[in-house]
Give the backbone structure.
Amino acid sequence: MHIERTTPDPAALDAVLSDLASWQQDGGPVQLHPGDLGWHMRFGPDAVAGALRIWTVGGTAVAIGFLDEKSLIRMCVTPSANQDEELAEALVRDLEDPDSGVLTGDRVVVEARSGAALRSLLHRRGWVDDDPWTPLVRDLRDPVEVTDLRVEIAGPELIADRVAVQRAAFDNSTFSADRWTVMSQSAAYRHARCLVGYDSQDNAVAAATVWSAGAGRPGLLEPMGVHRDHRGHGHGTAITLAAAAGLRDLGASSATVATPSSNEGAVATYASAGFRPLPAVTDFALTR
């Protein structure tokens, strides 16, 4: 089997998103999702394409890696190659080799929640457990309960509120109206929605973005945040419920999210919105 690794051209992003969407399965791991690439689209298609590494066999993608940072890659393996030892060996060679152009730095981290053969080989090669994450899933076969929070789908006329909540929810956020515009014009956003929640005084208090991978597949909630001045009133639970309902409207079979296990407040918020915590998973770290 001849395995090739490439960094795609921006023109190929539609195909990458389609491949990644087709790999999403209910009952499988909460893994790299088209929405993860979609949220990164706020930096433009060139940035997203440059952060991708695609492994192919005969021109068909079998593994996709997304560089969140130069020393951190999020991996996804096609379900049909879950137990493929030859593919796992090729991936690990590239992940460990500082000259491969995949990972740089003295300490590197791999998120590998799919690909049993890849995960097993990383353990055998001496990669160690990194910080734990808690995946959470909500089944969307039944309607989602309605809350008192007024929730609007954010288009250009509401984007100032969407941006304001994002920046007030995350201290280091660089989100802006211009970045939302770039993101909203991407292929990934054709199957996404930004939601803004308003309290009884019409303050924008919470926001979320939801991403579909297609009808009958798991959808992703990324990100969700509550304005720092309006916390402690249940708005996080309410916007999460609205996000789940939005994904159901888009045809998603389930809603998924993952958060650091150390963020107990976030885990509790998602659980209060009917998300079922799955066993914690760790990334893999290697000091070279």
Observations:
- The mean pLDDT is 97.
- The chain has two domains: 3-134+283-287, 138-281.
